[in-house]
Amino acid sequence: MRSETIQPSKEMGKLVFKNKKNHMLDKIVPILLFLCAALSIVTTIGIVITLISETYQFFQQVPIMDYLFGTKWSPLITPTSFGVLPLLSGTFMITVIACLVAIPLGLASAIYLSEYAPKTVRKIIKPILEVLAGVPTIVYGYFALSLITPLIRTIFPDMGVFNALSAGIVVGIMIIPMVCSLSEDAMSAVPRSLRDGAYALGATRFEVALKIVVPAALSGIVASAVLAFSRAIGETMIVTVAAGATPKLTGNPLESIQTMTAYIVQVSLGDTPHGSIEYGTIFAVGMTLFVITFLLNILAQYVARRFREEY
């Protein structure tokens, strides 16, 4: 009986080649993804190391207590003074004004989109609202300078061109999409059964929104507010253009102030000698800003875990 040899077909060859190719991709792709993740971690570590090293050199020349509790900031003018409280005061004034604008408007928008708006309206309004996040911040700054400030000056004629109030209002307008989008996502995640149960008990739509949906989505809402607060603290171009460059320890929002980010922009223009104590203030202020935003992000994560409702 004669034996016959079986010749492999072209299809079998292609299948074997494809399996080898997929096997190689299974090995290579995880390595590439790991390198991408490692790159972000290494970059973050490099930034932190740079901040710490430069800040340490700065505090070798300036006592840390004078920096933290000093009430005058004039590192570029003789006699020099390095008290950061005026910059902190200006930064938190802008942030508080922005949150007073963004949180109520953003939350109200989220409630409307989640509980009142039809699906077609939601599909139109939400993308339009989120377009605000794509507008360059320097455009917001000139919007504050050319429109918001003249409007406010009709009420307060003695207010200067550069002031904290108009800058804070526009920063609040800028972060409305963050509050609205995150809050609306949290509300949309609330099960429909909770709403139906409340309606069955005779609750109105407004009562369902405020007494059922908002408490159930509280963790996401609070986290969005904290993240918006953090975003407002780190805003640069709006406050640089509209708030002024006067580091002043004041509680009057009608006056010109300076924030930490605006000061970094001012000193980074190239006139300050590299390695000087004035140059070191960039990293000291940057480190202060980094610590504040880092703590706020930790707070947002804690709040999200602490008040999270699982269904």
From TrEMBL:
Top-rank taxon: Bacteria
Pfam family for this entry, one: BPD_transp_1
Membrane-topology annotation of the record: Multi-pass membrane protein
Keyword set includes Secreted: no
SUPFAM superfamilies per the UniProt record, alphabetical: MetI-like
Transmembrane spans: 28-52, 84-107, 128-152, 164-187, 208-229, 279-300
Domain ABC transmembrane type-1 span(s) in chain numbering: 88-300
InterPro entries: MetI-like, MetI-like_sf, Phosphate_PstC
Keywords, sorted A to Z: Cell membrane, Membrane, Phosphate transport, Transmembrane, Transmembrane helix, Transport
Compartment(s): Cell membrane; Membrane
PANTHER family noted in UniProt: PHOSPHATE TRANSPORT SYSTEM PERMEASE, PHOSPHATE TRANSPORT SYSTEM PERMEASE PROTEIN
Family of this protein: Belongs to the binding-protein-dependent transport system permease family. CysTW subfamily.
Function: Part of the binding-protein-dependent transport system for phosphate; probably responsible for the translocation of the substrate across the membrane.
Protein name, as recorded: Phosphate transport system permease protein
Lineage: Bacteria, Bacillati, Bacillota, Bacilli, Bacillales
